[in-house]
Amino acid sequence: MAEPPFPAAAARTLVLLAVALALAACGDYPRDADDMTARAAGQGMRVGASHDPPWVLVGPDGDVTGPEPDFLQRYADAHGYRLHWIAGGHDALMRDLERAHLHAVVGGHHRKSPWMPKVAWSQPLHVRPSDDAPMPERRIALPPGQSAWQLAFDTYLVGQEHAP
After folding, report:
1. Which residues form the signal peptide (predicted)?
2. Over 90: is that where the pLDDT of 80 sits?
């Protein structure tokens, strides 16, 4: 009987070597395509806000308040990020988000938004503008392709939703 061209032990060694090389090539995952997490840590977190009462209120002086901005401020504080608000029109902010010039956009989103397939979306955020108001499911727009950023954001959001 003829010997196989590769002994079984050599074949196993080659497979293990290939797996080890593949894992080494993967690097750190998840990863941000545009270094959003590093940019937030170094330069601050840039968040777009469009006026969308009662969830997002943009004052004439550019002050941004409301339940969604309050959540973003808590997120920034928890991670040691400075938060920079950029008030503006929804479509202009979403274009900046799509290009990864912003870390998030709050306000003005609706289920049939043309931006739905173009950007990423947070897990549902359940915020109440007042004690007697209904609590609809809202989402925060996030830049596409920023896996580590989205994972950190959603992990924090889900943790806050289930906190006592």
Report:
1. 1-24
2. yes
